[in-house]
From TrEMBL:
Domain CMP/dCMP-type deaminase: 8-138
Gene Ontology MF terms in the entry: cytidine deaminase activity; identical protein binding; zinc ion binding
Organism: Micavibrio aeruginosavorus
Signal peptide annotation: none
Listed name of the protein: Cytidine deaminase
UniProt keyword list: Hydrolase, Metal-binding, Zinc
Biological process (GO), any one: nucleobase-containing small molecule metabolic process
Domain of life: Bacteria
A cellular-component GO term for this protein: cytosol
Family listed: Belongs to the cytidine and deoxycytidylate deaminase family.
Length: 138
């Protein structure tokens, strides 16, 4: 898997996801936010939509991609990140779950995903398709 180091715009994307916690926080439920960057440089962010019944919860990445639908056909997604705010001390970058990997590659197969590399103990970017090498297709 090819990895890429983060650039200034990637750190700005992480900050955008982190700031989502300040904008929308209720019931202390919304512990994951995401942000994506379009090719134009525009940033769109969103929060997990949690529910009392956990099976109804929708992850942050599909929410954020849904908010970007008006743009992505003419201005594709180039990078996406998710951060968790369950800890009291800091916001942490987290990898997308399996469902979100499917979702991201449906709408942005050429996009990068920012993740934390345990091997390198640093943040890196990888292609969305590298996180889902044997994607389901109809």
């Amino acid at each position: 898997m090819k990895t890429s180091p983060l650039e200034t715009a990637d750190y700005d994307l992480i900050k955008a996801a982190q700031s989502e916690f300040l904008a929308i926080r209720s019931h202390n439920w919304h512990g994951v936010a995401s942000a994506l960057r379009l090719k134009s440089g525009a940033i769109i962010s969103g929060m997990v939509l949690e529910a009392e019944n956990p099976s109804l919860t929708i992850c942050a990445e599909p929410i954020t991609i849904g908010k970007a639908l008006d743009h992505i056909h003419s201005d594709p997604i180039v990078c996406i990140v998710a951060v968790r705010d369950r800890e009291e001390t800091e916001h942490k970058v987290i990898p997308p779950c399996g469902r979100c990997r499917e979702f991201i590659t449906d709408y942005a197969q050429d996009a990068y995903v920012i993740i934390h590399s345990l091997e390198e103990n640093t943040l890196i970017k990888v292609l969305a398709t590298d996180l889902l090498p044997f994607k389901y297709k109809n």
